[in-house]
Amino acid sequence: MNAGRDFAQRPFDVGLPIKVTSAQKGIWKPAGTPYAVSVVQTHKGVYEDRDIIPSDEGTWTYFYHQQGKTLEDLREPTRHYANIALMRCEQDGIPVGVIIPAEDGRGYHVLGLAFVEKSHTPGYFKLVGPVSVGAPASATLAEEPVVVSAALIALPLDDFDPSAVRDDRLKVIAQVHRRQGGPRFRRALLRAYGGRCAMTEYDAEPALEAAHIIPYRGPQTNHPANGLLLRADMHDLFDLGLVAVETHTMRLRLAAELSGTKYEQYEGKRLLLPNDAAVKPSVEALELHWAQSAVA
Asked: How far apart are CA 51 and CA 128, in angstroms?
């Protein structure tokens, strides 16, 4: 309820029965709970927390530094109970509050609640929000973005400068994350399809993306029935209308542009469908996609 609110001082009590931050710790885990309640980026902290990475759909990703920055801490983050508390949030899907310095340079801004997602950046937790508390599962799936494909990230055209110090790795990670689909939407499709691409049955999870059948148009379109779990290249072809699903046979049909290519092997292949009828792809959505594709 305090998301988006600014406080003149670091907030400790916002009307909840427990305090939400600690004056001494950036990661706050109250006594009596195994989970972290919040993370705070201070104005002059000792850690190199990253800037918020927003998406076009109003969600954001934030890389927050773990407690401890020595080599031993990076190797064994569980040396600190605060890190363990955030890991438990990740494991059990418990959101945490995120508080950052306000733009006025003095106060603090409540960014909102975020899920702790698996991070491949050593020393950092990946927080993705916002999260709606009390919303039904079908609604909370709608909180995440899908924007650009990692395969389509442009290469730099300027001369290569080996002395450049800018590190774009987190930017690329964020782009990949957004294309893969929002965490909850993608997790729902990973479960529904057993971690396999619906078109190729490819099972390398990092390359699998949550594709929308009807393009993202707000929360209602992040329903599993409007999604397919696809390998990244198949996602691109599907979005371009070069691959579509013939609904009366549930088989793949390819556009003429793909004739004679390696993709021709998928012509006529039956679409992999979830066992759970509630998350099977919408026939109506597939027909709308077909009608607008290059296959029709």
From this structure: 13
Q: How far apart are CA 170 and CA 147, in angstroms?
A: 16
pLDDT of 271: 97
3-state secondary structure of 250: coil
Per-residue confidence (pLDDT) for residue 234, from 0 to 100: 94
How far is it, in rounded angstroms, from Cα 196 to Cα 193? Answer: 6
Nearest to 125 by CA among 71, 82, 188: 82
DSSP state of 10: -
Count of helices and strands (H, E) across the chain: 7, 12
Residue ranges and CATH numbers for the domains of the chain are: 1-132+169-180 (2.30.280), 181-296 (no CATH)
- Please give the Cα distance from 109 to 1 (Å, whole number): 13
Give the SS3 label for residue 6: strand
Which of residues 11 and 70 earns the better pLDDT score?
70
Quick: pLDDT tens for 75-122.
888 888 889 999 999 888 888 888 887 766 667 788 888 888 887 777
Distance (Å, whole) CA 29 – CA 38: 8
**Residues composing the chain:** 296
